[in-house]
Amino acid sequence: MRRLRNRSLAVLATLGTLALAGCGTETHPPGRGADSAAPGRTVTARALMRLTTAHEETGMTLLEGPVFGVDGRLNVVDVTAPAGKPKVLRVDVRKKTVRTVFTDSRGAYTSAQFSPYDGRLYLTDIAHGEIVSLAPDGSGRRTFFAGEVDGAPMRPDDIAFDRDGDLYVSDALGMSEGEARGRVVRIGRDGGKAAVLAGGLSAANGISFDVDYRGLWISELTENRISYLPTEPRAGMAGRHTAVRVDGGVAATDSIAVDADGNLYQGLHGRPAMAVYSKYGERLATVEVPARAEGLESATNVAITPGGTAAYMTVSGPAGGFLYTFDALAEGIRQSNGG
């Protein structure tokens, strides 16, 4: 875990110098019970295409935030892209083509998601504590939110939108210092009324609503756990609780997505794989790249085709940034499209 934390801090340090500077196969029966006791079945993803190579300026590439637009194209961010290099890419997964949508001289964008309120593409800039938005074609950059929340600057990582277009942001505050000061912050769709909904998180990373928008799943990178935070009153569930403990070994919990059956797709930083759980914490499957694939170190996030089961996983490492595809356990919804 120390090695992984050092790697995560190295990513931020590298960014600081810049400007902070579907085909699944089952090999095991479905598991039951605790994660360590029942690993579930193995789903082998297949390589679709390479989108990026390691950047000379940063020494790495790290893909994140896959999200389908209304045009059916998949948008992906490259967290460590240097100034002027593609920071948001748009992929035609059928034609296997990619083009640059957006770049700038300073941002380190860790997630992307389209707002249900104004249709714009929202990006989190973890390096500068900002959330920005773009027109669907990548033009018209606007700063949506910047500044302190409750006296502390944010390190916004991932985004979940509610039905009204309000933002729920995982704030990785304290990660660089190894302190559990991460937060969940709610920001009104007009960019105002920011409020802390939960604190004391260890490098808050992934965030997604459940199917009914009654609560949030939150992954904590340096604790390898998924917490659940009710956003509507429930009997006996007044606050956040630990929902799943992920046996990640050297890998840590990254971004998170939810399909139409309520299953959780937990990305892993430090291993090119995803762990899939039911909403009750049952380990259902592990999505892996083929054993022969080399130079891949993380599978940060996934987008499942809205209304379909074709899933596209962002996988990165010294070999470059790739899209891998597999058959999801259920259909894609808003909660499995971006974040």
Overall form: globular
Number of strands: 27
- The CATH architecture designation is 6 Propeller
Instruction: Please state the CA-atom Rg, rounded to the nearest Å.
Output: 18 Å
Tell me the number of helical segments per DSSP (H or I, 4 or more residues long).
1
CATH class: Mainly Beta
H/E series, N to C? HEEEEEEEEEEEEEEEEEEEEEEEEEEE
Structural class: mainly beta
Low-pLDDT segments? 1-11, 13-38
**On the 0-100 scale, what is the average pLDDT?**
89
Gap from first CA to last CA = 24 Å
Percent strand: 35-45%
Query: Main beta sheet, described?
Result: 9 strands, mixed
What is the helical fraction, as a range of percent? under 10%
Fourth CATH level, the homologous superfamily: TolB, C-terminal domain
Number of structural units classed as domains: 1
CATH topology: Neuraminidase
Task: Describe how the helices and strands are arranged.
Blueprint lengths: L1 H17 L22 E4 L1 E7 L10 E6 L5 E5 L9 E5 L4 E6 L6 E6 L6 E5 L4 E5 L7 E5 L1 E2 L2 E2 L2 E6 L5 E5 L10 E6 L7 E7 L2 E6 L5 E6 L4 E6 L10 E5 L6 E7 L5 E6 L3 E5 L5 E6 L9 E7 L5 E8 L2 E8 L12
Parallel strand pairs: 1-24
Antiparallel strand pairs: 2-27, 3-4, 4-5, 5-6, 7-8, 8-9, 9-10, 11-12, 13-14, 14-15, 15-16, 17-18, 18-19, 19-20, 21-22, 22-23, 22-25, 23-24, 25-26, 26-27
